[in-house]
Amino acid sequence: MSVLVNLIVMLGMLIVVPAGLRLLDPVRLAPVRRIWPLFAVPGAVALWLPRGDAATALAVVFAFGTLLPAAQAVRRLAATRSVAPAEVAVLTALVTPSVAGLALVAERAGHELFGFTLPILALTVPHFHFAGFAAALVAGLVCGRADGPLGRFAALSVPIGTLGVLAGYFIDDWAELAGALVLTAGMWAVALVTWRDVRGPEHDRWTRALLAVSAAVLVATMLLALSWAVGEAADLPHPSLTWMAATHGLGNALGFALCSVLAWRRIGDMETIKDMKESAV
């Protein structure tokens, strides 16, 4: 499982986060995006080293890097003072990589932080790259594009559900299940709005295909997440962590997060070209 999880985390560190930062704010976040590899590459290397001083030192470098988008969240909140649903999702996306960074440092040091076992810490790293950063990012983008009740629900419930799942680790399995229910509802709302409102005929077929895949994958992967959470809480048979990494984790990383950032990048590029043509006229 560790090899697969490491590959998923590398996808988040090296591709999804910098691509997402460009989608969130291509101008103000450009300096962070340019130097992000200086932190992400050491973090990626730390994944493959044995636990110890070298791996921990590289993980610390990555953790410091995750404070840059978190600092931008503070700056953004101070400047806008907005609590609109889309803005809540954006702020969540900027902060969640720092949770992954802290978990990586503790796991690479072999320290069971806050009582979390090392396997759970290892899975926390991808969780807050994808269920944290990518999910909140896309929820914010979807809400900004389709600012109806369902879009606003998605933008609020994804951050609340992510926080609920994290809080459940400290409370009990039933609290974690409650967070998973809220997060699943939010992610399914993201999928529905993406399919119904964002995936319009104005986009080219590749963009529409990427959006369709990202929406369809969410239905299956979040159903798996629910089955795992229910099994943990009610002591019922449920998928193992290895199986979850190979299905839920891989599906969210490739089918949802990667397809989503590629689709939204294409949407942004096409809108820029359209604006340039209109300005020329």
Automatic annotation (TrEMBL):
It comes from the Bacteria. InterPro entries: YndJ-like. Keywords: Membrane, Transmembrane, Transmembrane helix. The chain crosses the membrane at residues 6-24, 55-74, 86-106, 118-141, 153-171, 177-198, 210-231, 243-264. Pfam families: YndJ (PF14158). The keyword Transmembrane applies. The keyword Membrane applies. This is YndJ family protein.
